[in-house]
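User: Could you walk me through two proteins back to back? I'd like the raw sequence and the structure tokens for each, with a short line separating them so I can tell where one ends and the next begins.

Assistant: Of course. Protein one, sequence then structure:
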Amino acid sequence: MRNKRLFILMIGLIVFIAVMGFTLGRTRLTWPEKFLNDAVGTVQGALYRPVGAVVDFFGDLGRLSDVYKENQQLRQTVAQYAQDQATYNFIEAENERLKEELNFTERQKQLYKYRYLIAQVVGSSSNPLDRTIKINLGARDGIKPQMAVTTTDGLVGLVSRVSEFTSTVEPITELDPESPQGVQIAATIFGKEKDSFGIIDSYDAKSGMLQMVKIDENDKMAVGDKVITSGLGNVFPRGIVIGTVVNRQDGDFGLTQKAMVEPAAKFDHLQEVFVVAVPDVNGP
């Protein structure tokens, strides 16, 4: 029995060596080998296509899930917009009703309906004693002195001089409480208009901050609040963004407080500005 096993092992080894010697060095396959290769290839192809289809199917399901989530977010955004629009329409209608009940004149109704005239910045003065900005709108475009100028970010300044085709704008970075013009900005806090008030009277070139003074100690102002024009004084229209409160501290004499405000407008990248055309309050 033992010799029989050894004999079979030797025969197998001889056959294996013979097959190896027969196949090595050949470039052509015999028909059984070709048949076997073709059969294996066919089976592999038949298996690969369904597997690939299943993989693609689950991949499409994943992408479909992402699209579904995006659609849900878009629906929520549209729904929120519709709700905000409805709220705005309701407030606008109520506002008009109250105006009618209070017998507002047409002049009063139009008082805060500003027009924004877009202008290109065509030059700026490098004179340290007269840093101004020049725009390409003038008297023929309806520009008048003392009109406010702003960007989409925030308040830029006030029109100081007007010629036929251009105008000169004095930026709020040139505010000086000791200047002959004495232009100051009455300001309040967005969302806290009834509880907050102050005067922006100067600009600190070193820190790049505006100074807001005459703030009551019980004022609701807080760091991070958005400062806007209050409209008091009939110089700057109300509701224009000025900047953000950076800090708040006691005033010079301790009777009131002051705050530093970071301007919202980017004065080193001014290209387009808007001149705010306010309805004539002296009209009929």
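----
Protein two, same layout:
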Amino acid sequence: LVKCFEEAGVPAGALNLVFGVPAEISQHLIASSIIRKVSFTGSVPVGRHLGELSARHLKRTTMELGGHAPFIVCDDADPAAASATGVALKFRNAGQVCAAPTRFLVQDGVFDAFVDAFVDGAGKLKVGDGAHVGTQMGPLAHARRLDAMAGLVRDAVEAGAELRVGGKRIGNEGFFFEPTVLTNV
């Protein structure tokens, strides 16, 4: 990773990565007099916690929390092009990005063509280790997300949604879950 930044012209020390227990790192860094502002993109519960820590130390904050990005496809759109863009956006980082679409609103005139192309694209994604050449989607962030995803799919199907592709864990190692498409949720 350091080599990538060097090749991109990022000066040494301009970007630093810290690994460890997130709560311990946050508590230490936010309390530091070196830190003047906290910026966070992620879940509402974590944002709330970081906001409280920041307030204790009178640190300015910027929070982007719990985004719900809709992807809208109108009848005049090219369904194949729209689905290719939608697949790329939805499954980037296994959908664990605040800007990942959470729902697709597709007009009737292109619905079938869009869904067919989207399902096809999602089903062809290569899932695996992000460090391996050709991988298009990596794992979920944590083991507990596997059960959460399975529960979300099960709940949607029991409530009448149609499972078009995916819907289950891949293998028994790592936190890999199939790219999943549900319609008529």
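The radius of gyration is 20 Å.

Let me know if you want the two compared in more detail.
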